[in-house]
């Protein structure tokens, strides 16, 4: 039986992807090229340094490790300026209702985010106490699609992967959940999240019963 729900942060609980995009775009522009919203899809669920590598390759640039560290730091500063303005108003529609159903069903919860800024974001939106376990970018060595972030979440909750459902909006994140041996609910489009076991456009309108029923179907 399912005992725990593991949630991605960016794209499931809040829409920080738009802030990541704005900050990366600004960096790319300063380096003399541009990135599109479509290109940004590739950066979802991918760690900060790996994202920078993808962007630099896209712009055809090679830089030293020191410069890379500086560029990542610059992007993060711009990103934090945007995150600093977040409030509970930025929690995505349906999240509060879904979480109250999760609590009523006595399911455990974990956050599975590769973002090093995840604790700060949870604090900004008033959800620091909403999870039984928080796995963020400071606790892992491999980003999604590696399953490490979700396997650590399951381990901290003391449940097995087969007892977990992952909620993910990114292609890399859905793959991470599947590679971890978990049931994955894709949040977004079925055309994009082809590996997901179930897909919903958002948590808004989705019910815990519907998810649990799908895991036994
Ligand atoms: P940071 P998630 C991920 O969060 C984002 O989707 C990804 O775009 C970002 O590069 C990554 O966090 C690292 O974030 O720079 O804040 O450490 O989807 O795993 O919640
Ligand atoms: Mg995400």
TrEMBL record:
The protein's required cofactors = Mg(2+)
Return the EC number. Answer: 5.4.2.6
In terms of InterPro entries, this protein maps to:
B-phosphoglucomutase_hydrolase, Beta-PGM, Beta-PGM-like, HAD-like_sf, HAD-SF_hydro_IA, HAD_sf, PGP-like_dom2
Keyword annotations? Carbohydrate metabolism, Isomerase, Magnesium, Metal-binding, Phosphoprotein
CDD domains per record: HAD_BPGM (cd02598)
Query: Which top class of enzyme applies to this chain?
Result: isomerase
Q: Could you tell me which SUPFAM superfamilies the record lists for this protein?
A: HAD-like (SSF56784)
Q: From what superkingdom does this record's organism come?
A: Bacteria
Protein family (similarity comment): Belongs to the HAD-like hydrolase superfamily. CbbY/CbbZ/Gph/YieH family.
Q: What is this protein called?
A: Beta-phosphoglucomutase
- Which organism's genome codes for this protein? Spirosoma liriopis
| Higher taxonomy | Bacteria, Pseudomonadati, Bacteroidota, Cytophagia, Cytophagales
């Amino acid at each position: 039986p399912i005992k725990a729900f593991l949630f991605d942060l960016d794209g499931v609980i809040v829409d920080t992807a738009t802030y990541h995009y704005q900050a990366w775009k600004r960096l790319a522009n300063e380096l003399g090229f541009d990135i599109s919203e479509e290109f940004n899809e590739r950066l979802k669920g991918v760690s900060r340094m790996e994202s920078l590598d993808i962007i630099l390759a896209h712009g055809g640039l090679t830089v030293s490790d020191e410069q890379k560290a500086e560029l990542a730091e610059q992007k993060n500063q711009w990103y934090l300026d945007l995150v600093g303005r977040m409030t509970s108003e930025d929690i995505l529609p349906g999240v509060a209702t879904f979480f109250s159903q999760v609590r009523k069903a006595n399911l455990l919860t974990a956050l599975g985010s590769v973002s090093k800024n995840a604790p700060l974001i949870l604090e900004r939106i008033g959800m620091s106490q909403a999870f039984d376990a928080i796995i963020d970018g400071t606790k892992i060595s491999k980003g999604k699609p590696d399953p490490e972030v979700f396997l650590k979440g399951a381990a901290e909750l003391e449940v097995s992967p087969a007892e977990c459902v992952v909620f993910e909006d990114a292609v890399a994140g859905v793959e991470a959940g599947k590679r971890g041996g978990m049931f994955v609910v894709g949040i977004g489009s079925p055309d994009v999240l082809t590996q997901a076991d179930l897909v919903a456009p958002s948590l808004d309108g989705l019910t815990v019963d519907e998810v649990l029923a799908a895991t036994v179907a």
